[in-house]
């Protein structure tokens, strides 16, 4: 990705130099931002430049950079204090371990030392901001969660999760900044544990564990079904578009034909979340707005061609690895 042609040089402060902090540093630096990376552990600070160089080297090898690795790495400074990390930052990305009390302490410090205009975002995977941003924090309106895919320089989706106390202007600006950095922001409308990414992943994992427990399939076979079946399909289109294109007549037809079977499978696991007519109508309306039924055949052909591209890539990769 080329550095954006923006009149103002953006600056990101990253707190935590673990794998996610390092990955965020690469994301922002690749987008042309100035990055200041801090970790309270001196060993982590010492290791970060080598880890950044290693990952940039891999990205170079796969032709995923539009600049040299050295130019991108030069935008990242490893700093010794929290204050240095957040100085002049447009966006502060906290990447500390998933512990509410630790995040509470960090956000209290960040609110004291960061510029009043800086957005304070946590990379929390499950904890909503309401769980660790203190009610008395003066700058709580600028705090939110921004949970990335891992690693974010390859999995660009980022979930922007405002708390009830987060300013609407802050949420909108965070979405704009992450998009400017080349990421794919998705707004989570309500605080729920796990947000979207881990709730979807968790649903698959729960069923996968149950299938192993019940002796239905082996670990290896379940991974094969995902890797060779659902994974390739979902890398092209999501679950709603998948079933919309799998059934002539679209998603309403799919719900009518397959909904009872899915309901029985859910009930088998003690889950009762029926696809009510109102819910199906809501989803159908969104799909028909995105794809009128008179374009259905054309989109099915597009899907198949995308899967052909993927199949060709996998075949080429298989030959290269042999």
Automatic annotation (TrEMBL):
Q: Where are the transmembrane segments?
A: 12-33
Q: Does the keyword Transcription regulation apply?
A: no
Please indicate which superkingdom the organism of origin belongs to: Bacteria
Question: Which keywords accompany this UniProt record?
Answer: Membrane, Oxidoreductase, Transmembrane, Transmembrane helix
Q: SUPFAM superfamilies annotated for this entry?
A: 6-phosphogluconate dehydrogenase C-terminal domain-like (SSF48179), NAD(P)-binding Rossmann-fold domains (SSF51735)
Query: What GO MF terms are annotated?
Result: (3S)-3-hydroxyacyl-CoA dehydrogenase (NAD+) activity; L-gulonate 3-dehydrogenase activity; NAD+ binding
Which ranges of the sequence are coiled-coil? none
The 3-hydroxyacyl-CoA dehydrogenase C-terminal domain is annotated at 194-280
Record-level GO BP terms: fatty acid metabolic process
List the protein's name.
3-hydroxyacyl-CoA dehydrogenase
- What organism is the protein native to? Paraburkholderia acidiphila
């Amino acid at each position: 990705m080329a550095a954006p042609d923006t009149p103002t040089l953006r600056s990101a402060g990253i707190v935590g130099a673990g794998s996610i902090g390092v990955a965020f540093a690469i994301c922002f630096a690749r987008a042309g931002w100035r990055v200041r990376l801090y970790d309270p552990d001196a060993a982590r600070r010492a290791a970060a430049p080598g880890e950044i160089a290693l990952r940039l080297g891999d990205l170079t090898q796969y032709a995923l950079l539009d600049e040299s690795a050295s130019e991108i790495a030069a935008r990242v400074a490893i700093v010794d204090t929290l204050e240095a990390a957040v100085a002049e930052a447009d966006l502060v990305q906290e990447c500390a371990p998933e512990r509410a009390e630790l995040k509470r302490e960090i956000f209290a410090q960040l609110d004291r030392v960061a510029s009043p205009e800086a957005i304070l975002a946590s990379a929390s995977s499950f904890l909503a901001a309401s769980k660790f941003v203190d009610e008395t924090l003066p700058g709580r309106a600028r705090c939110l969660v921004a949970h990335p895919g891992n690693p974010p320089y390859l999995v660009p989706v980022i979930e922007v999760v405002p708390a009830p106390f987060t300013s609407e202007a802050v949420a909108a600006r965070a979405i704009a900044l992450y998009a400017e950095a080349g990421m794919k922001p998705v707004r989570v409308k309500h605080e729920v544990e796990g947000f979207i990414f881990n709730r979807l992943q968790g649903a698959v994992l729960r069923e996968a564990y149950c299938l192993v427990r019940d002796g239905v399939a082996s670990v290896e076979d379940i991974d094969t079904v995902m890797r060779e079946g659902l994974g390739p399909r979902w890398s092209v289109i999501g679950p709603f578009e998948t079933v919309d294109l799998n059934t002539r007549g679209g998603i309403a037809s799919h719900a009518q034909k397959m909904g009872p079977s899915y309901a029985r499978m859910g009930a088998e696991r003690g889950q009762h979340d029926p696809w009510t007519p109102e819910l199906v109508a809501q989803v159908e309306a969104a799909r028909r707005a995105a794809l009128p039924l008179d374009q259905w055949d054309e989109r099915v052909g597009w899907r198949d061609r995308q899967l052909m591209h993927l199949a060709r890539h996998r075949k080429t990769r298989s030959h290269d690895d042999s």
